[in-house]
Predict the structure.
Amino acid sequence: MGYALAPSPRVPTPFHKAWIIANPIAGRGRARHAAHEIALGLLRIGIANELRFTGAKGDARTFARGLDPSVDLVVAVGGDGTVNEVLEGLAERRVPVAIFPMGTANVLGLDLALPRDAKRFVAMIAEGRTGALDIARVNQSHLSFLVVGIGFDAMVVKELDARRRGPITKSSWVAPALTAWLNYRPPALAVEADGVRLDGTFGWVLASNVVHYAGFAVLARDRVLDDGLFEVYLFERSSRAALVGYALRGLTAGFPGGSCRRIRVRRLVVTSSEPVPIQIDGEARGVTPVELEVSTVPHMLVVPAAWANGGDRGANGGDSAR
C-alpha cells in the first residue's frame, strides 16, 4: 500500500505531514517514479509523508476517507479520476490537496497551470498558497469538479467505455466520437435553473467549473472557481451538422457564442422525455434526469504563486484576480 517517511527539516513550510495518494499506472507508468520523487522532495523541505499507491478503482477514495487526523496535506498523483476520488473521499474535510497531473486530460492541471516537474511541484507546496474549489453533487451520489455533460459528449464517453481495454490516450477518443456522431439521435433537454424552468428545449447541456474541455481552452475564462456557482452552457441546436458547427466554434472562438448561451447556477435540473446519457468528469454515469447542486463547502487546493491566496484567476493565470 505504501510507506512512511520522516523529515529532516530544512525549509519552513505551512504543512507538517502529507499523504501522497498515487495511481502508479497513470502517465503510462511514470506516476510511480514521480510519487517517489515527490515523497523525497517533501522530506527535504521538512514535510513527513506516507506514500499510498492505488491498486483498483475506488482505492483513492478509500484512502482519503481514512485520512489520519494529523495529516494537513494530501497530494494526488494521477489523472482527473484520481483527483475526483480524493476529493470525494475527503468530503467536507478542508485538508488542502496538491495535484500532480499525470493523466490523459488533466483538466484542472491545465486550468491552474500546475507544475508537471516534481521539483517545481514541491517548490509550489513549500510556498503554501491555497485557493478554494467549488464542487457539485450530481444525482446525490456523484461528485463533479470539472464538467457534467448531458448529450453528445456523454454519448462519446459511453462508446469509449464499451471499447476500453486499458489506459486511455487522446487517440482513444477518435473512434467513439465518430460512432457516436453516426448514431446520433438529437435529444430535447428541458432545463430548470435555480428553480426556474427555461423556455424551450436544448440539444446539449454542459455544467462546468473550468475553462479547459476535451483538452482545449474552449469555455469562458471569466469563470470563478469558488463563487458557489457552476457555469451552464446551453446549446440550442441538436442536429449532426450543428455538432460539427459547435466543434469548429469551440476550436476558433470558444463558448458561449452563436447558438450557445451561458448561465450561472447553484442548482440545475435537466430532464428529457427519452433517456439521454450523462457524463460526470469524463465518466459515464447513466442517463437523465440530472440534478446538480453546488456544495456550500468548497475544497482547498494548493495553487501556484500566480493565483492569489484564496482568489481565482482565469485559465493559466491569465486573467486578473477578482
